Amino acid sequence: MSFDQIVIFYNEDIENLLMENASPTSKYNSIFSIPKENAKQAIEMSQIFVDCFDSAGENKLKFNLEKAKVAIQKRKSMTLTHYMDKSVVNQHGKISVAVDQVIGLVKDALKIALTPGDQLYQTFAKTITDGFTNVKKLADDNYIVWEHSSEHKTTYEYHALFSIANKTTGAFMCVIPMALTITVDISKSKLFFITVQDVHNYSLEVKALEVVEALQ
């Protein structure tokens, strides 16, 4: 397998590639960093996680890590390698620092090879940053679930999914569904104008898992 031609696919690219396999109701901001010939496999693997959300009650539409673990069993060729449920509480600092904290947590817990400056790292960092600074668009695209909003606090959950196949993953495809719950000390309306340089009190909860499957 040659990894000389890694392509970054975003949601609109994925839907254009294989419309018949892409779910129109997907709640994930999906990003693939893979050779183009492996796109079909990446989509099939990611579809396993389409329904891994609570369906009722006050947590409706929130990512359910246990459901995701069970869903993996539907595809016998996939293996769960790592999962995480970690929090960062009551931090005061720039949003850019919060992004770095999320990346650090995910790297450590899921053992993802992310090197600052390379294409995968930049794509990963942008996707996480969007969860703080591009909230209006993500909400319009159904990648965000609102939990609480008041004059001084807003809580929401952001869903993203990464599919990776490169020299580091070798003969395997790696898929990572993720839910990032963010609580920040401003109203929803002010949240729409936040930047990476803004300073706020925030807390974070990251739920994610990693599955792998041999490249087809």
UniProtKB/TrEMBL annotation:
Q: Which InterPro entries match?
A: CytB_endotoxin-like_sf, Endotoxin_CytB
* Keywords (A to Z) from UniProt: Sporulation
One Pfam family here: Bac_thur_toxin
Q: Can the keyword Membrane be found in this entry's annotation?
A: no
Q: Which Gene3D superfamilies match?
A: Delta-endotoxin CytB-like
Superkingdom of the source species: Bacteria
What's one GO-annotated cellular component?
A: extracellular region
- Please indicate if the UniProt record lists Magnesium as a keyword: no
Return one Gene Ontology term, BP aspect.
Answer: sporulation resulting in formation of a cellular spore
Q: Which family does it belong to?
A: Belongs to the cyt1/cyt2 endotoxin family.
Protein's UniProt name: Delta-endotoxin CytB
